[in-house]
């Protein structure tokens, strides 16, 4: 069985949220001879591809730059990354060099020139938090809403850098408050919430940032705060009126993701803010935050959710009890908490995942599971032949014997065919379970059906006949036995006429 599908909103690209900018500064390694002709590297700067003007701007050497400009050296010679001197000055915070370059070529096109990755000088300044450079570029006509080849805006990069002065400058000059980062569709408010920068969050909200903006996964800034445990961000967004019951494209809610990730304080805040614990978080309408907490082993969160969660999930057909989630996750502490609070150890049939009971699900993993079994039995789980069948299926013969000792019913079976199916497959190990089953009082006639008789070895049939009253054999079974190996006739003749065959107790292996 595959893992029960919890919502998988993981950090990945959204945790990085970088623009992919690499250090374009000095100290870069020299390129190997001929490398430029074989492959262009647009992230690493090579000293022998940079113009003298670009190098002076990179180093902030105003004196050298002024001499070069007086000599008529060009300001628009690009290096291997497409970086021009204006990009070097912006990235390295060379304020005076930037003024000289703009004065030398004050055209709007030069200000907006982009690198091979689509970065203009304003992007580079914003990514580094150089607010003075940002101011100079904006006053010189730079576009506050310019986008990179990945559709990332200067505002997003400034927020990512965490420098509020740069954010204020961009907003003052007309930057779109919902400026995005297209690699994940996050807005500036998503990023500020992720970084838990309260000052920037407040500023963005004041400037009209869309609280319900959804990224490529349908995730809002409030969802981000809940996912990553950013309590302060979550508090600010809730107080601003953001929807606590928003749902991502996969139906996950902020409460669900906070429960899954183990952010206890966020769960407390969401519940106190009327987040709905009964809002189903998947397309099949069975998964709730309580399932996430139970499966992931977050006991404190589970205790918070139990009083608020409707119990129909525990009993209603078509739903899945959180007991299953605790069993699947091997979370003994969560299982005990649920059962202590009245959840059923038997629950409803879990048709979605193909299990008749939590006890059946306990067999899913290879490692030790008796702790789960004992907790279920402690709280009244009812054993049946299907559980014995699972013992045979997974070759858990010690558990098979344990279930017999615990009083597993041996009559009025409803799953005889399933048991026989697994018993046939386990016939090579029959001495590990069959003697115990028969000595516990199981009627061998329940096994003497065509499927069993025609499949098992002669040794097994002979052994079973030691426990069988031959006078009770149905004619069909008599007929099947008669066509088996010739020594069966000898065995049969020894027993015909007796009322009940004496039971010979063979050694139990």
What does this 3D model show about the protein?
There is one protein chain. By secondary structure, this protein is mainly alpha-helical. The chain has a domain at 9-30 and 38-184: Serine Threonine Protein Phosphatase 5, Tetratricopeptide repeat. It has 32 helices and two strands. It has helices spanning 12-16, 35-38, 52-59, 62-70, 85-91, 95-104, 108-111, 121-128, 131-139, 154-161, 164-172, 188-195, 198-206, 221-227, 231-239, 254-261, 264-272, 289-296, 299-305, 312-315, 322-328, 332-340, 358-361, 370-378, 385-393, 397-405, 416-425, 434-439, 450-453, 458-465, 475-482, 487-495, and strands at 180-181, 186-187. A two-stranded antiparallel sheet has the order 1-2. The two termini are 32 Å apart. 42% of the residues are buried. Mean pLDDT is 86; it is low at 7-40 and 496-509.
CATH class of the domain at 9-30 and 38-184: Mainly Alpha
Query: How much helix is in the residues?
Result: 40-55%
> Mean pLDDT, nearest integer?
86
Oligomer: single chain
Q: pLDDT under 50 segments (min length 5)?
A: 7-40, 496-509
InterPro entries: Ankyrin_rpt, Ankyrin_rpt-contain_sf
Organism: Chrysochloris asiatica (Cape golden mole)
ANK repeats: 48-80, 117-149, 150-182, 184-216, 217-249, 250-282
Protein name: Ankyrin repeat and SOCS box protein 3
